[in-house]
Amino acid sequence: MTDSRLRISENDGITVVEFVDRNILDEANIQAINEEITAVIEQAHTPKLLISFSNVDHLSSAALGALITINNKIREKTGQLHLANIDPQIYEVFVITRLNKLFNIHDTTDEAHAAFAG
Amino acid sequence: MSDPQTHIEGATVTELVHDRKQISMLIDQILDQAESQSYGSSALFAVRLAIEEAITNAFEHGHEKLDPSTPIHVEYAVSEHTIEIAIEDQGPGFLPSDLPDPTLQENLSKPSGRGVMLMQAYMTDVHFNDTGNRVKLRYIRPSES
Fold this sequence. Notes:
Chain A is 42% helix and 25% strand. By secondary structure, chain A is an alpha/beta fold. Chain A has a single domain (6-115), classed as STAS domain (Transcription Regulator spoIIAA). In chain A, the strands form two sheets. In chain A, strands 1-2-4-6-7 form a five-stranded mixed beta sheet. A two-stranded parallel ribbon of chain A has the order 3-5. The longest helix of chain A is centred in the first third of the chain and has 17 residues, at 27-43. Chain B has a single domain (12-140), classed as 2-Layer Sandwich (Heat Shock Protein 90), CATH 3.30.565. A five-stranded antiparallel beta sheet of chain B has the order 1-2-3-5-4, covered by helices on one side.
């Protein structure tokens, strides 16, 4: 069994996901991350996910692709996804790709927590 | 004769197999050279991102139908004003102009198709050869204002 690349915790019905790695670039790791978060989504009736990027220095378009897949799966279950703590250089990647329009992005995890409805 | 648009003068030339450790070592080597030439953190971020995208494209798309052990060809040169990297795969190539714009509303929820646009956004210029199996990334140090 491979080690998890994620730290997952529960807080007031919200699943908080943090990354172990500073760089989310490796295809195999991204695939593993995608599968692990998908399992969390599948277990929940109406998933509420907060993904924190506090540790993350670099991510690739493949990582963005995994986030989009996760977002699509959460929407299928009428759940909610919020992102937080994104480094300014990485936020720029979201802006360039216009994915800042697709995702709910917050400066801090506290702000992201407060943004969950219901 | 190499394509003039994607040629790099005086480049270090190497082969790279699809192995994460080797990929990371090569990128670190290029970035170490850039750092020793006093390129700043935004340049290093941009160059790392663009190389990662080009290498991923080469292996995931270029070599999709080839033996997984097939290497790609990498050339690079770091100078005081310019960082140049060329990545060539052994696949059939593609036409960059055929790629849909990933920033259009109808494409925002698609999980793939952002690699080339990120390279173009972060590099000063990006050139493909006519076959579309070789890309040259060029970062020019911004002039100090």
